[in-house]
Model the fold of this input.
Amino acid sequence: MTKQRLYSGMQPSADSLQIGNYIGALLQWRGMQEEYDAFFSVVDLHAITVAQDPEHLREKTRRTAAQYIAAGIEPSRSTLYVQSHVRAHAELAWILSTITGFGEAGRMTQFKDKSQKQGADATSVGLFTYPILMAADILLYQTDVVPVGDDQKQHVELTRDLAERFNSRFGDTFVVPKPVIQAETARIYDLQDPTSKMSKSAESHAGVLWLLDEPSVTAKKIMRAVTDSEGSVRYDRSEKPGVSNLLTIYSALSGRPIAEIEDEYAGRGYGDFKKGLRDVVVSEFEPVRARALELLDDPAELDRLLAVNADRAAEIADATLATVYERVGLLRRG
Ligand code: TYM
Done:
């Protein structure tokens, strides 16, 4: 039986991934790459929807790819590539934009949040059409499943709608993909502000755990994480958002159920609990960090790997794009 296809990606919007990316996405990717024919991209075209320093963007793109590999994505098994290396992404995004409603795109909550924060004049049209480019990423590969954190769910729903619309207008062309979201870990919160999602683009880094931080920095951030005055290690998302978030992280990285961790720390203070969590996080991150830095020491080899993988991706993407051009009635070049 042929394997089902999996597609996912991350923006190279910071020097390091954060623990939400790691738990909400990368851990799932790693676990699924054997069972699926998997494609993982570093979505640099998405990153430029907000201003980027050109030299720094190139560096962040390499860093993101290195962290995929360091976290266990195998470039010989999965297709791990940079989005802008495959031209079909931008081309399909254009075609899909012509079947997307203006109101439909305007309902995307991530766009609404970001544009509200930045103001209309500072918001690019690219940020508005961002989800359409994401739909193109997914649909080019005839994707069955898209493992993401829950902030991306609405974008995958839009992708499904566009695939169905295109198929009904122009004939069966795209596989209609499904989001795969791990309920327990779909949203990791900021350690200083545990009702806000942890984000690569957070204004303050005090509550963000970066994969590439020095272990001593990670340890400090955990020991300073916001909790509450109750003093008991107990999961209660609405009353105890800080402790609940730390329990989620602990459970995701140790593979132990939350109830078992609550039992272990029953009658002990937050200090002990945080020390336990610190050890779990640091020992998980240490080898990933070391491997990522090692890979970044040899950028030429990393670039070579990415090029080979981009060729593999382009072959599939170009075939889908050719069918799309044919279906919508574009005249073939003679
Ligand atoms: P990005 O770069 O914001 O995030 C990458 C992945 O990490 C997940 N994630 C989280 N999960 C749990 N808790 C958090 N605090 C947290 N923060 C981020 C995200 O849900 C995501 O899975 N638009 C996408 C990138 C993209 C993409 C695609 C994804 C472009 N094309 C095609 C899937 C398929 C984004 O900005 O992710």
